[in-house]
Write a structure and sequence with these properties.
single chain; about 270 residues; alpha/beta; Rossmann fold; 2 domains; 7-stranded mixed sheet; two-stranded antiparallel ribbon; 9 strands; globular
Amino acid sequence: MLTNSLKKSLYGLYRSFYRKTNSYKKSQELSQALKKEEENLQHQILNKLGFNDQMVVLQGPFKGMKYGGMASGSMLLPKIIGAYEEPIHDWVSQILASNKYKRIIDVGCAEGFYAIGFARSIPTAQIIACDINENALALAKELSVRNGLKNIDLIREVDHKFLDQHCDESTLLFCDIEGHELSLLDPLKSKNLLKCEILVEVHDCFFPGIQKALVERFQASHAIQIALDYSGRVLSYPLHMLSEKEKRYALDERRPKGMSWLYMKPFSNS
């Protein structure tokens, strides 16, 4: 039986050998060509939308928010257009219209689309935005400066103790952490999760059963709504200047099938 160290050594030799082959070189060339084609298409679309370096969100709950030219871990154009995560637009609009949140914690904030949007729209709330990716936090910092925000803090990590200290009846916990939501959202380890509202993107596509487990975990304490993702987008967006190919690309979030969100509100707050 091969030991783990031997397996790693053999795999390293295989990778080193493969990277010298014509097959690897051709695959890299094709990958670079496709990346360049997408970059050109995105640039072409942004030009048709009237943007150069200074961009703003065109529609949706965060309409008017100043934005940058990069996204972290997602597609940029749906955010600029305002179509990003359309199935939860109504929930986000409800949050923005409410005056009950003193604190919003965005775990997995990426470059800050939601964190900056919340901070800009609810200036009386303290926004805490977290991401383990330093580059993402740097982009979020740029966006906070671009939008002139003073009510947002950027941090690297949150844990159960942090949530217990910062969650209460006036807190919204917004969570998108690629499947780790099942580990983090545990009221047995952070009892104050039972007091706060939670809007979480569920990643059954990575770890089947997360949605069922979270519903079972919070159904006694929270009223739970479920939103399912769907192919394409159904709302109207100002894209008349784009070709059909450009529209499809601009609205494509490259999202795995079967994505969903849970919006959980404590019974004690109603």
